[in-house]
From TrEMBL:
SMART domains: THUMP (SM00981). PANTHER family: RIBOSOMAL RNA LARGE SUBUNIT METHYLTRANSFERASE K/L, RIBOSOMAL RNA LARGE SUBUNIT METHYLTRANSFERASE K_L. GO terms for molecular function: methyltransferase activity. GO terms for biological process: methylation. It comes from Sphingobacterium faecale. This is Class I SAM-dependent RNA methyltransferase. Keywords: Methyltransferase, RNA-binding, Transferase.
């Protein structure tokens, strides 16, 4: 198995829908060539040691999948037989633990769990035949993870080098109400082209995810600094020196001299306390000025800068009549108090967005879970547009 840590193969990096453009930017910035990009990820050629680097550096990704096999399978029996040919005894420790995930679209399968069981059975049977011992398996993703991608008659088998999703960045022990996924929060900030030096203001901050991600971006602090366990650590052939060298590079890359004004406010004292705890866990509490109060009382330093709102959409929280007033007040506040800024409102409710009363200069498409959302951009000119 040692050689696959150094042998480039097909690698798929997945992400949530509509985050692919931001993932592509990150992957290219790390020096990798993208062979193919699609709505929920990118494809490249890389070794598992390369995957270690990708896992530690990517902010917008979900999983980093390294292909170990591909074959035709029309039904579960053919899937099982194809899987038996793979040298699992050289990848998964016989006294170890593994789990199986899958993405299956095959007419003979009514539930993906059945396909997962077939994968598990093949791995266990092969290792028992070669080593005389059965490894343990279960649903937890904290050790070796194998991923099946089975579309029609084509089965692809991957080592999921990530395990638990990369889309969560490890600092949010207290999520608060209706939180924004960390990978999504980062992507929305990347969409604004914020320079990481000018002010970033986040009224209605909730559990603080946007402000924390802004601070991490400003200081070039990577998610890998928050995490000490990945699936790649539990495959045969793992060399921990590669991981610790990469982690050392992350520490060296972090730029603690960048301390832009980052302000996060919320009317809920409890929300601000949760945001402070999360920021402390992320190591950026000292970079963020937290304020309790109505969003209209939020301190806005002299611009230029970025101000971003993620108000309730009326889907899970709040009621429409109140929210119509809130959205109108957001528009008035940006227009009157945020001159020289670029304003952003992230919402999943187009009817409420109309109440902002300003003309959006750009609309970025995102999903928050399954909800179709927009990040609306507003140019908040100081004086007339011509000036």
């Amino acid at each position: 198995m040692k050689e696959v840590f150094n042998t480039p193969e097909k690698v798929i990096i997945t992400c949530n829908k509509r985050l692919s453009p931001y993932l592509q930017e990150e992957v290219v910035a790390l020096g990798f060539d993208i062979k193919r990009a699609f709505n929920t990820g990118v494809e490249l050629h890389a070794s598992i040691n390369d995957c270690i680097r990708l896992n530690l550096n990517l902010r917008t990704a979900s999983q980093v999948l390294y292909q170990i096999g591909s074959f035709r399978a029309d039904n579960p029996q053919e899937l099982y037989e194809g899987l038996l040919k793979i040298e699992w005894e050289n990848m998964i420790p016989f006294d170890g633990y593994f789990s199986v995930t899958s993405n299956v679209h095959n007419d003979t399968i009514t539930t993906p769990l059945f396909a997962n069981v077939k994968v598990k059975d093949a791995i266990v049977d092969r290792i028992k035949e070669k080593k005389g011992v059965r490894p343990n398996s279960g649903p937890d993703l904290f050790k070796s993870v194998v991923h099946l991608h089975w579309m029609e008659d084509r089965a692809e088998i991957f080592l999921d080098t990530s395990g638990e999703t990369l889309a969560k960045h490890g600092y949010r022990k207290h999520p608060g109400k209706a939180p924004m996924l960390e990978a999504l929060a980062t992507s929305t900030i990347l969409a604004t082209k914020w320079d990481g030096k000018s002010p970033f203001v986040n009224p209605m901050c909730g559990s603080g995810t946007l402000a924390i991600e802004a601070a991490l971006l400003a200081q070039n602090r990577m998610p890998g600094l928050q995490r000490m366990n990945y699936s790649f650590m539990h495959f045969i052939g793992y060399d921990e020196s590669v991981f610790f060298n990469e982690r050392k590079l992350l520490k060296e890359k972090a730029d603690k001299s960048q301390t832009p004004p980052i302000i996060a406010s919320d009317i809920s004292e409890q929300a601000v306390e949760i945001a402070k705890i999360n920021a402390k866990t992320a190591g950026v509490e000292h970079l963020i000025t937290f304020q309790v109060g109505d969003f209209a009382d939020t301190t806005v330093p002299d611009g230029p800068g970025v101000i971003m709102f993620n108000p309730e959409y009326g889907e899970r929280l709040g009621t429409h009549t109140k929210l119509e007033i809130t959205y109108k007040r957001i528009g008035d506040f940006m227009k009157q108090e945020c001159k020289g800024y670029r304003g952003y409102v992230f919402t999943g409710n187009p009817d409420l967005a109309k109440k902002i009363g300003l003309k959006a200069s750009r609309r970025f498409e995102f999903f928050n879970g399954k909800l179709d959302c927009r990040l609306l951009q507003y140019e908040l000119y100081d004086g007339s547009k011509e000036n």
